[in-house]
Specification:
about 300 residues; Arc Repressor Mutant, subunit A; D-Maltodextrin-Binding Protein, domain 2; 12 strands; about 25% strand
């Protein structure tokens, strides 16, 4: 069994499609098929069922996936350590970030990092706070940058910036007139919220509980997986939402959204890495750069 066979197996397992896996790996379809066949024959196991022109993981294949990932992660970590011993800031950094961070705070910082450490390959995956934390725990990501709270077991969290959350409505909503919003009034409108697992939603729900309002009491008419979708829905109707001011600023400036007069405590952006995995020179340099925090005035920009 070789590391290349494991890489091929995982690509095919993820896509359940030989041709697409071959394209992702920049290999021929026959080379991918041969690698899977050799792995199965060597260990007398069937990893995939061939159903017509499709393939699907067998039970043995499903059980093998986490083991294969673990071996490849260990090999990658070993390679990174050897690079560090050679004194070079090189290699691959796999970063997972929640949407607000990935869209409005992180890109400029990654560009500055790339300008300084051009030999480091940066790969960014966008999800939500929960999925980013899970990626670090499983070894799929070297670093997460999130706006929500995470269970710190096994993880090292460091606050790197502050973010302002705002309640926003569209032009047709009665709260667009600037009236002061009381906590009890929150129960009198429809809401469009981010999906469960979103740091934005978690922060808002935590604030509701501090006001002795249970989140389930809100009339939530839509749960949407992105800031942009939530803003588009709010603009089109008479519901309210809560977002980072970083996300809403352009829409507010253009007059498409209005910030309602309701205070929400600020929240933090945090870096997250695994406490028991080797911190490479590349990761250490990125952590140091991100720890520099907000540019002057950025956190309070409107």
């Amino acid at each position: 069994m070789t590391l290349e066979q494991l890489r091929i197996f995982l690509e095919v397992a993820e896509r359940e499609h030989v041709t697409r896996a071959a394209e992702a790996l920049h290999l021929t379809q026959s080379a991918v098929s041969a690698a899977i066949a050799a792995l199965e024959a060597r260990h007398a196991v069937v990893l995939f069922n061939r159903v017509g022109r499709r393939i699907e993981l067998t039970e043995a294949g499903r059980l093998f996936v986490p083991e294969a990932r673990s071996v490849l992660e260990r090999a990658r970590s070993t390679e990174a350590m050897l690079a560090d011993l050679g004194g070079a800031t090189t290699g691959l950094l796999r970063i997972h970030a929640s949407q607000t961070v990935a869209s409005y705070w992180l890109p400029a910082r990654l560009m500055r990092y790339h300008e300084r450490f051009s030999r480091v390959d940066l790969r960014l995956t966008v999800g939500n706070t929960q999925s980013a934390g899970e990626a670090v725990l499983s070894g799929v990501a070297d670093l997460a940058v999130v706006e929500g709270e995470l269970d710190p077991a096994g993880l090292r969290l460091s606050k790197v910036a502050e973010d302002r959350l705002v309640l926003v409505v569209g032009n047709r909503h009665v709260w667009a007139d600037g009236r002061r919003i009381t906590p009890s009034a929150l129960l009198e409108t429809n809401w469009i919220l981010r999906e469960p697992g979103s740091g934005t939603r978690a922060a808002f729900e935590a604030h509701l509980r501090s006001l002795v309002i249970e989140p389930r009491e809100l009339s939530v008419v839509l749960e949407l997986p992105s800031n942009e979708a939530a803003m588009a829905a709010v603009e089109a109707g008479q519901a309210a939402t809560v977002l980072s001011m970083r996300a809403a600023a352009a829409h507010v400036a253009a007059g498409r959204l209005h910030v309602a007069d309701f205070d929400i405590p600020p929240r933090s952006f945090s870096t997250v890495h695994h406490g028991q995995r080797h911190v490479t020179r590349a990761l250490a340099a990125l952590l140091e750069m991100l720890a520099e925090g907000d540019d002057a005035g950025e956190a309070s920009s409107v």
